[in-house]
Please model this.
Amino acid sequence: MLNVLMLGVGQCGNRILDAINKEAFGGGGTSKLTKYYLRPKFPSRVETLAVNTAINDLKELRFTTAKDRLHVPNLHGVGANRNVGKQAFMDNRDTIMGEIEKRGDFDLAFVITSTSGGTGSSFSPLLINELKRQYRNITVITVAVLPFREEGSIYLQNAAFSMRELMDVEADGIILADNQYMKRFSGDIASAYDKINGMIAQRLLFLIESLDSEMLSVTDLGDFKTVMNGGLRIGTLGFYQADRKNPSVRDAIENSIKPGNLLYPANVTDDAARAMIIVQGSREYLDTDEITKEVEKLSACAGHVFKGIVVKKGHPKVLSVFALASAPELESIYAQAARAMQDEKEKRTRARKQLDDAFAHIEDLEEIY
Amino acid sequence: MRRMIYLAVILFLIITTAYAEESDQDETTFNDFTLNIGDRIDIGDYRAELIEIQSLKDGLAVMRISRVGGALDEQRALLQNSANDFDGGADGDGITLTVTDILDDQSAKVRVEYKENLGTARKRTSERPVSSDVPLLSVQKSFDKNQINVGDEVKVTVTVKNTGTGQATNIGAEDLPPLPEFTYVAGYPPKIKESLNPGESDSAVYVMNAVKEGSIRVPAIQVSYTDSKKNLKSNNSEPFNVLINPKSKADLILILKPSGPIRVDGTGLLNISLSNQGSASATRVEVEGEIKPPEGLEATGLDRSYFEIPPGMEENYSAQLSGKGAGNYTVTLEASFQGGDGAVIREGTTEVVVLEREYKYLYLLLVIPIIIIVVWMYRRYREYKY
Model:
């Protein structure tokens, strides 16, 4: 059994972690009261911990137990300032690591964070380093969420610098999720957040379950690690669930790698470096030949593709994990961030000059009373 | 003049004194004497002699009054406390005799009233021997029962005894029956010997049946007889009152007291009391019980028999009850007995409740899960409360 640690850092990380806990109670239709009469069902031994400097963000969680919420005292958040965030982490490192240590030893850790916020983007690189230092054989995967582009220049700037730091640390891979990309799933921001968080939660738990299940065709943590080490060590997740109208496993695999079902905008055939296809469903739907054909088709463009088949009652569900060889959208973000930072710098210079010009009017004057 | 006044006063005093002396001689006086038969009172020329006590009961005494010279010689029966004038009585020139008390059949107290000018009354005791052949019958009438109930037979005993010194003859008893409270059964009228020697007694018994309740006065029986002088005498028994109670009956009261409500499959007792509150014994008492509705309540030992339950006595016993089905049951006991007026039936009834099987802590089946759920949810709330 895999020992999995899921850390939700910052407001975005907390909410995704809460969605994971909600998913463990049964998923989307789960009532808020479910937690009063059910226990969360994780596929493996999963420990969750929500870390935040803003206590109000922790208070709004609904499916995460109080003992799984760690408040790092730093007034009320770090105000999207990554430098303040880093200092807060260093000041409270022992507390944070102590809380993690209490939860035992782990094989796999997911650090779920937004790249744009204050706490998550500043804590996560440092936290990953600490995890790697403290747990020798742990596989650390960062689940990084890219911001809406119109959220503001500071968030874009944070995303740019945070992503660079995340790439520099010793994490075993980054799974990207792009809010901007997934915003199309819902009309308003609030429901988009809930939808995105739910999608991420569902895919992560599916992944954990698949890595820890007896399979018809085996994929394990090592395979997953190999996939994530391919290309840029940046990857994403695709998912599709067939229904009664079309229970074809081949169509399910094809649909799972379509851009519309990915967390991050990518063209699998062009950008994938390595991949893992995990198929779950009732035996009557799992045509091995069809699955093999689809995997071979994918291997032709994505290099190596790991295949996992889990027999479980229901229509076919397919999770596709990709490591990307290129990430053009990232470059776009960096370009936008650079522009935003340049604009910010120019605005600040102009404002300073205007202020200096204003002060010049009274430069030779004395106060008269 | 002064001499004339003195003379007139002296003359007045002499006249008034002479008149006073004359008035004193006309004053009426009396004396009381106790006379035995033969004794006499002498007042001037008058002699009054007690001849006999004719009737002690009726207060009649016979006296003979005579006057020296034969102008008066009369024998008269004097009624007690009734004044009898002779020669005009004391208010005239004669005397008045009154028998004030008859002490016994040989003596009486006599008052004589007379004018003082007749002299002083003196008693002369008779030198004749007292007559020794005077019969005197005493009569008694008695019932053999003090408590009489309607339907009871009563023996009436009439006893006549000659307590005198002479033979009583021509004895006749006259008994007035106290009808209509009694009917005669046998022996009436009572028959007494026609003559009784001194000290001899005779009795007669007759039987009556009390037929009507109430308080009645039993009349006296009168016995008439004659003595050796052929004087007719009589005597009565004393009348007395008797109370005839209603007919004696047994009256059984049945009291049924269940020990309390019985639960289904539980047992209880029914305490039964038969008390005879009548005045006669209840005999051949048969007690039989009945339960309505017959299903759901079982009883053992309801039926009993008693040979006799005397008046004022009580018999108690208990019957075992066992509940089989919930409900209200009526237990009726019927006691039949002979109670002095034929067969009598008395009933006693009580209600016995058989309760549903009680699940005493059934509510806990609801309360405990609710508590567990509330505690569980509170723990969960605390678990998730941040």
About this structure: Chain B has two helices and 28 strands. Residues 18-24 of chain B have pLDDT under 50 and may be disordered. The CA atoms of residues 41 and 123 of chain B lie 4 Å apart. The domain at 252-355 of chain B is CATH 2.60.40.10 (Immunoglobulin-like).
